[in-house]
Specification:
The complex is a heterodimer of chains A (211) and B (226).
Chain A lengths: L10 H4 L2 H16 L13 H16 L4 H9 L1 H13 L4 H23 L3 H13 L4 H5 L4 H31 L6 H25 L5
Helix pairs in contact in A: 2-6, 3-6, 5-6, 7-9, 9-10
Chain B lengths: L2 E10 L2 E11 L3 E6 L5 H7 L8 E6 L8 H7 E4 L12 H7 L8 H14 L15 H13 L5 E5 L7 H13 L4 E5 L3 H5 L3 E6 L2 E6 L1 H11 L2
Parallel strand pairs in B: 3-7, 3-8, 5-6, 6-7
Antiparallel strand pairs in B: 1-2, 1-4, 8-9
Classes of the chains: A mainly alpha (211), B alpha/beta (226).
The complex binds adenosine-5'-triphosphate and magnesium ion.
Chain lengths: 211, 226
């Protein structure tokens, strides 16, 4: 007997994974680039509008603002890690703000996507999309659908691990009485991630994955 | 299966990890003990080709892992100490099912087989959970399920209980030593676990220094390092 958690049935949950992924990519692109035809007076407000739009999408999938705020809170360290070094290097506040909001927004959108999509459905749709005729030049170049979908799954898996290292590093530094700043955290975080990557590659090989 | 080492040495830049080791083993539960850096993991990794001998040769059931890594990996399941690095797919069921990709089975069959192994280890209720949200003990059970579902002939486990508490260690010990039909090579620092094997191989200074009855090997290990 299994107890499958009843899946949330919002429009966003039910959307087909393929088009949803396409929408994600388009939205992230729209956030990341400076659209040339937009008036200078509106420009500074675009990142904020994007964030609002994302909050609205979250509300559509999960009633209320709780889920959205929870995800923002999850990203707090990453946000600090991105913005503080820029400020230290003297980048103007407005630029830092705009870049940080955009990046946060992109990560929130990606998180929303993974929260509302079953990985297996996603992988299936990536594999079948890559199997489609119009993409056959890519497959002929040696891009295997299975490899691409595996890379996707591994990326989604790596995110909680990096978050774990982030927390461990922070706690270890606090325990030794130093205030964990992004600058201090970079090296241990890198070391932990590289070590993880090494062991992960070995475990993959042992499970018969050709990488 | 017969595990055969013929004058095997392994050198990494500067260090000799294994020094001219020859041995033949075909017991069902083979325990490997020894101090840190004595060569146990190197020995274990040679069995599925993760490490290749610098000189000499290894045969496992007639397969040479250094030459035919694919065949070696198909017949050998490897369990690491850190369960975090063994998880490939985001959810429990998907991770087990991942092992059966390319098995030629239909999706429904893969699902059924994966669920069956999860229920054998009493973690079927976790099937749809995020794999990273499990406890270390549950993760290690998941890793074992993901390996056993492919029915390998040999299991190699390198300190599978190193990160676990007493209860979870015993659970893993039971899963690996009592309930398993397969042959297993078990590397461990846990002497209670080692005592449950049929034979113990003891490493020291990159060599095998003793092979025998677990109680005998454990008492000379304790005496020598008193
Ligand atoms: N990839 C490597 N590169 C360089 N040296 C290595 C490598 N792997 C092992 N060694 C060295 O080889 C020796 C044997 O290592 P091995 O990992 O086999 O020991 P072990 O018995 O498993 O130890 P432990 O109980 O600490 O796991 C050690 O001196 C180790 O530092
Ligand atoms: Mg070791």
């Amino acid at each position: 007997m299994t107890f499958v958690k009843p899946l949330n049935s919002s429009l966003i949950h039910r959307a087909a994974p393929g088009p949803k992924l396409l929408a994600l990519i388009l939205l992230i692109t729209a956030i990341s680039i400076e659209l040339p035809f937009i008036d200078d007076t509106i420009k500074p407000w675009i990142p904020a509008c994007g964030l609002l739009f994302t909050a609205a999408l979250y509300a559509l999938a999960f009633p209320g603002v709780g889920k959205f705020l929870e995800q923002v809170w999850n990203l707090k360290l990453l946000i600090a890690l991105i913005s503080i070094p820029q400020l230290l290097f003297g980048t103007p506040l407005a630029t830092v703000l705009s870049a940080t909001v955009r990046l946060t927004d992109a990560m929130l959108l990606a998180a929303l996507f993974s929260l509302t999509t079953k990985t297996r459905d996603l992988l299936d749709s990536i594999e079948s999309a890559l199997g489609a005729k119009w993409l056959s030049p890519l497959t002929r170049l040696g891009l295997k659908p299975a490899t691409v979908s595996l890379a996707f799954a591994m990326t989604m898996n790596a995110i909680p691990m990096i978050m774990k290292f982030l927390n461990q590093t922070k706690e270890a530094q606090s325990a030794r009485g130093v205030k964990p700043t992004p600058v201090r955290m970079t090296i241990p975080l890198l070391v932990a991630s590289l070590k993880y990557a090494d062991e992960y590659a070995e475990a993959l090989t042992a499970r018969g994955v050709e990488v | 299966m017969l595990i055969e080492f013929d004058r095997v040495s392994v050198a990494f830049e500067g260090t000799i990890a294994l020094d001219d080791v020859s041995v033949k083993l075909d017991q069902k539960r083979i325990g490997v003990i020894g101090l840190n850096g004595s060569g146990k993991s190197t020995f274990a990794r040679l069995l599925n080709g993760l490490v290749k001998p610098t000189s000499g040769s290894v045969f496992v059931g007639g397969v040479n892992p250094a030459e035919d890594a694919k065949a070696a990996r198909a017949q050998t399941g490897f369990i690491f100490s850190n369960p975090d690095v063994q998880i490939i797919m985001p959810t429990v069921l998907e991770d087990v099912a991942f092992s059966l990709r390319g098995s030629g089975l239909k999706k429904a069959e893969i699902d059924a087989k994966s669920r069956a192994i999860l229920s054998r280890f009493e973690i079927e209720h976790l099937a749809d959970q995020a794999a990273h949200s499990l406890s270390s003990g549950q993760k290690q059970l998941l890793a074992i399920c993901a390996i056993l579902v492919t029915e390998p002939k040999l299991i190699v486990a390198d300190e599978p209980t190193a990160l676990l508490d007493l209860v979870n260690s015993r659970r893993i010990a039971r899963a690996l030593l009592s309930d398993l039909p397969q042959q297993i090579v078990l590397v461990t620092h846990d002497l209670e676990l080692a005592a449950g094997c049929d034979i113990l191989v003891r490493f020291a200074g990159a060599k095998i220094v003793q092979i025998g009855e677990p109680s005998t090997v454990i008492s000379s290990y304790l005496a020598e390092n008193a």
